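Email to the structure team, subject: Ferric iron abc transporter, iron-binding protein model.

Hi all, the expression group asked for a predicted structure before they design truncation constructs. Nothing fancy, just the tokens so they can compare against earlier work. One-line instruction: predict Ferric iron abc transporter, iron-binding protein, return tokens.
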Amino acid sequence: MILGFVVALGLVFPGLARAGEILVYTALEDDEYPGYLELFKKDHPDITVKVVRDSTGIITAKLLAEKDNPQADVVWGTAATSLLVCDQNGMLEGYAPKNLDKVASQFRDTANPPHWVGIKAWETGFCVNTVESEKLKLPVPSSMADLIRPEYKGKIVMPNPASSGTGFLTVSAVLQTMGEEKGWQFLDKLHDNIAQYTHSGSKPCKMAGAGEFPIGISFGYRGIIQKQKGEPVQTVFPTDGCGWDVEANALVKKAAIKPEAKVFLDWALGADVMKMYAKVYPLTAYPTGVAIPEGYPADPFKILVKNDFQWAAKNRDRILEEWTKRYGGKSEAK
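Reply from the structure team: attached below.
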């Protein structure tokens, strides 16, 4: 897989030196983050931001590989469980960005100053192609439990948790809510119905939207945004609870920390960009007053399972090793 997608934003004024340049790693969606950065560009035209974007697992692996020679200045919108792994390896610098006092406790590190701070959360959602499902006479699944029914055999695609944060939060939720013994038994049965595991959390929804498969296990934002674009996609939030994680920011520990990195982190938790996040992600770090997007339940926090981030981070490597051993044979080629 070609790692990342690099975008440089900034204004260069002839004869004037740039105030600074920072490198930001992110797992935010590739059709999502450019709009946010346009706002940053307006607010801080003298700071150049270079972005490396990829799936959560790939960004996490890149950060860990660069542990002894960190390249990024900031991590933006990447799973809190991944940042906890980085923090356990001593890779993050504590920093209290502006507006930290507004952030809900479950959206931030407990350390003072925090080593990571969330901006929003994302959750498991099924993307169901209503046209294809009707053709195949498939009922729309309403729960995770429904997905192991025999009629769905070969009709479901799902993200690989080793490369996708959406895949990991979904697997982690199964293991936490069912217990590991029953959880792995459930995942065995689900595997029987899976046609393919993808290396992107959004790809199952894109495949469902294109009619390649009737059902894609993905996340809420993806299905809702695709429906807004006219695709025949119904987003289902499982009634037995949604796995979830926090998209969080962090300051990378380096010998020389750039002041522009802290400026970016302050901006990324600001009210203006938080309202932009809330237009498609109602689970924001603090209230914005923005109406909940159509397609989400009235209280989206109520659909989330209880999630122990520390447990998920501590057991991440073990879970992924076991998952890959059991199910990796159905993963798409990298």
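The CA atoms of residues 77 and 182 lie 32 Å apart. The longest strand covers residues 117-129. Ping us if the truncation boundaries need rechecking.
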